[in-house]
Amino acid sequence: MSGTLVLVRHGQSEWNLKNLFTGWKDPGLTELGVEEANAGGKALADYGIKFDIAFTSALSRAQKTCQIVLDNVGQPNLETIRDEALNERDYGDLSGLNKDDARAKWGEEQVHIWRRSYDVPPPGGESLRDTGARVWPYYMTEILPRVLRGETVLVAAHGNSLRALVMVLDRLSKQEILKLNLATGVPMVYKLKADSTVASKEVLGDMSCAH
């Protein structure tokens, strides 16, 4: 048996609440988002987990979630590496727009394709495949080696950067990953085998509240 990898999507952000495309923009967490991060942290504390290192993105909503989780497990000063390789996917020209306004401008079907297709990016932005193209190498070179050494690693990031990781871990097809939504603040605990495949996966909370 090898190490443990814990993935947590950040709590609700101010722009999630306002139904805006966020991407690389940097709004903070809402009160609910802080509560979600605390709930995830408490679930990990109850689980009895202790981390060796944490990774998060260059965006404050993920960093704040990461810190709240670490506070809850009693490791507020744990080494934390921040890297934009783990950022949310870049929504390009959609960033900052209300999702309903975007549908009015480009049409419901086109916006749905941008949001939910695997490899069609919005104007000036990234598709899920593009997001994976920066997440996967970072995971392989920076995160996975630590897990394979037996470390317990926290990754606090975003819906799409984590979906790219889950796609690999859970061996999901392009069609299957499009149906997957990750709930905010709900930890996923992966135990990895020595060959980097998944030995077990536990979700510490309710994934049905994904939005």
From TrEMBL:
- UniProt catalytic activity: (2R)-2-phosphoglycerate = (2R)-3-phosphoglycerate
* Coiled coil (UniProt feature): none
Pathway listed for it is: Carbohydrate degradation; glycolysis; pyruvate from D-glyceraldehyde 3-phosphate: step 3/5
Q: Which InterPro entries match?
A: His_Pase_superF_clade-1, His_PPase_superfam, PG/BPGM_mutase_AS, Phosphogly_mut1
Q: Which Gene3D superfamilies match?
A: Phosphoglycerate mutase-like
One Gene Ontology molecular-function label: phosphoglycerate mutase activity
Which CDD domains does this chain map to?
HP_PGM_like
Name the PROSITE patterns for this protein.
PG_MUTASE
Q: Which residues does the record give as substrate binding sites? A: 9-16, 22-23, 61, 88-91, 99, 115-116, 159-160
**EC number of this enzyme:** 5.4.2.11
Q: Which domain of life is it from?
A: Bacteria
What keywords were assigned to this record?
Gluconeogenesis, Glycolysis, Isomerase
Q: Which residues of this protein are annotated with the site description Transition state stabilizer?
A: H158
Catalytic residues at: H10, E88
Q: Mind telling me which SUPFAM superfamilies this protein's record contains?
A: Phosphoglycerate mutase-like (SSF53254)
Q: Which GO terms describe its biological process?
A: gluconeogenesis; glycolytic process
Oligomer status and interactors: Homodimer.
HAMAP family cross-referenced by the UniProt entry:
PGAM_GpmA
Purpose = Catalyzes the interconversion of 2-phosphoglycerate and 3-phosphoglycerate.
Which protein family is named in the record? Belongs to the phosphoglycerate mutase family. BPG-dependent PGAM subfamily.
Q: What is this protein called?
A: 2,3-bisphosphoglycerate-dependent phosphoglycerate mutase
Q: What organism is the protein native to?
A: Ciceribacter selenitireducens ATCC BAA-1503
* Organismal lineage: Bacteria, Pseudomonadati, Pseudomonadota, Alphaproteobacteria, Hyphomicrobiales
